[in-house]
Amino acid sequence: MPGPTAGSAVPGGKARTLARTYRRFGEVEAAGTSPLYERVALALSESDAALRAIGEAPARKRHPRVILAALYDLALAGRAPALAAAYAAADADAAARAAIDTLLHMTDAVVATAVRRRTRTDEAGRCGVLYPAVAEAARRAGADAVGLIDVGCSAGLNLNVDRVGITYSDGTSLGDPSSPVQLSPSVVGGRPVPASAMPEVVARVGVDLDPFDVTDADDARWLRACLGPDQPERIARLAAEMALAATAPPLLLRGDAVDVLPEAVAAVPAGALPVVTTTWALSDFPVESRLRFLHRLHAAAVGRAVAWVSVEGVGVAPAAPTLGDRPASGHSVIGLTVFRHSTLHAEALGRCWSRGRLLSWLAAP
Question: Which sign, positive or negative, has the C-alpha torsion 300, 302, 307, 311?
Answer without folding.
Answer: positive
